[in-house]
């Protein structure tokens, strides 16, 4: 599967916990392009799992994303982005900087994501949280194009993905 991604774009990864977003980001993008909500929670609250730090973490993430986009640098947002308001903020940010918002959905089966999450010592939430994320993801899959994402790529076989960088338009 070939994904054409404009050089200058805001790429929103979308997927439930354990779907493989961070792994995908590491494989396909440079470390400095990737802004991860976990890294920003750690930065502002010393704990990447501290959900009470999310508002501050996203505030900081959006700020840095804006600085990069203003300088003509691609941004890849590694966060679940399963909720509409999270995606709306990213579409608005892309528009404010005149770059294309692109979504890459990691549509990994919930059972697989749960197996991986359960095996991780750094993930403590229960099955119900993942189920809620999956419900939001199903809704997201119906709504993404209408929300303003110019391209929506749905990945079910991450091993088969090749990213092709498109020159700026
Ligand atoms: P959160 O940060 O919790 O939202 O999860 P995530 O979507 O970033 O998932 P992550 O990339 O951290 O992957 C979770 C676990 O699944 C890790 O242990 C990965 O090694 C494993 N994993 C991710 N992608 C793949 C894949 O394509 N194949 C296999 N076999 N394992 C994968
Ligand atoms: Mg991750």
- Principal-axes geometry comes out as globular
Bound compounds, each kind once, are: guanosine-5'-triphosphate, magnesium ion
End-to-end separation in angstroms reads 22 Å
Characterize the largest beta sheet: strand count, sense, and whether it forms a barrel. Answer: 5 strands, parallel
The string of secondary-structure elements, in order, is EEHEHHEHEHHEE
Provide an overview of this structure.
With 169 residues, this protein is of the alpha/beta class. The strands form two sheets. It has a five-stranded parallel sheet, with helices on both faces. The protein is built from six helices and seven strands. Helix content is 43%, strand content 21%. The protein starts with a strand and ends with a strand. The mean pLDDT is 96. The longest helix is centred in the middle third of the chain and has 17 residues, at 54-70. The chain has helices spanning 21-28, 37-45, 54-70, 84-96, 110-118, 127-143; strands at 2-6, 9-14, 34-36, 75-78, 100-106, 151-155, 162-166. Helix 2 crosses helix 3 (54-70) and helix 3 runs parallel beside helix 4 (84-96). The structure holds guanosine-5'-triphosphate (GTP) and magnesium ion. Magnesium ion is lined by residues 21-22, 38, 78.
Provide tags for this entry:
single chain; alpha/beta; 6 helices; about 20% strand; binds magnesium ion
SSE topology sketch:
Layout: E1 2-6, E2 9-14, H1 21-28, E3 34-36, H2 37-45, H3 54-70, E4 75-78, H4 84-96, E5 100-106, H5 110-118, H6 127-143, E6 151-155, E7 162-166
Bound molecules: guanosine-5'-triphosphate and magnesium ion.
Residues 15, 17-23, 38, 80, 116, 123, 158-159 line the site of guanosine-5'-triphosphate.
């Amino acid at each position: 599967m070939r994904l054409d991604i404009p050089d200058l774009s805001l790429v929103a990864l979308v997927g439930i916990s354990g779907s493989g977003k961070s792994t995908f980001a590491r494989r396909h993008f440079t470390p400095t392009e990737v802004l991860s909500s976990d890294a920003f929670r750690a930065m502002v609250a010393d704990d990447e799992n501290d959900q009470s730090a999310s508002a501050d973490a996203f505030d900081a993430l959006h700020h840095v994303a804006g600085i990069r986009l203003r300088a003509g640098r691609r941004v890849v947002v590694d966060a679940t982005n399963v909720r509409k308001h999270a995606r709306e903020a990213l579409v608005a940010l892309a528009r404010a900087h005149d770059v294309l918002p692109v979504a890459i959905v990691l549509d990994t089966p919930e059972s697989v994501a749960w197996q991986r999450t359960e095996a991780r010592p750094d993930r403590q939430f229960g099955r119900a949280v993942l189920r809620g994320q999956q419900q939001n993801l199903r809704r997201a899959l119906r709504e993404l194009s209408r929300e303003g994402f110019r391209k929506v790529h749905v990945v079910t076989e991450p091993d088969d993905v090749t990213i092709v960088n498109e020159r700026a338009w």
